[in-house]
């Protein structure tokens, strides 16, 4: 562990995490139109191909309208998770703000270790993996600043 990580784990400061609402529309739609599709999306396309000659899951093609429908389903669930996490953090006393294209959730006067423990005790680690900026290890990335130290570390629960 380097000095920055040691300071971040032992010195109270400002600990933040960033939540993503969605990616650019063109990227979202391109992924919804281009196989391989996740199983849940394939299931939607199988249902919709019954009423449309434009859709064939076996041939790997779908219509734009079906892709938009599938994307709406995905965004509904994704934004529901964002709402759950932000609501829980707001109620727990976190500062939650829109910054650029994301939502930054900040806890003041805490160590990274305390924040990790709090996120786990609030039951937020599973939804955070789906909606937060992730570190190289696939866990939500926490940014720390305080007392002259700035670093980022992943939450491990």
Walkthrough of the structure:
By secondary structure, this protein is an alpha+beta fold. The protein contains six helices and five strands; from the N terminus they run H-E-H-H-H-E-E-H-H-E-E. The protein has helices at 3-10, 25-33, 39-49, 64-91, 112-121, 125-131; strands spanning 13-20, 95-99, 102-110, 141-146, 149-154.
Shape: elongated
Sheet with the most strands: spatial strand order: 2-3-1-4-5
- The helix-strand sequence is HEHHHEEHHEE
State the end-to-end CA separation.
Answer: 18 Å
Unreliable residue stretches: 1-6
Number of strands: 5
What key phrases describe this protein's structure?
five-stranded antiparallel beta sheet; disordered N terminus
Question: Brief description of this entry?
Answer:
This protein is an alpha+beta fold. The protein is built from 6 helices and 5 strands, in the order αβαααββααββ. A hairpin with a 2-residue loop joins strand 4 (141-146) and strand 5.
Helix-strand blueprint:
Blueprint: H1 3-10, E1 13-20, H2 25-33, H3 39-49, H4 64-91, E2 95-99, E3 102-110, H5 112-121, H6 125-131, E4 141-146, E5 149-154
Antiparallel strand pairs: 1-3, 1-4, 2-3, 4-5
Helix pairs in contact: 2-4, 4-6
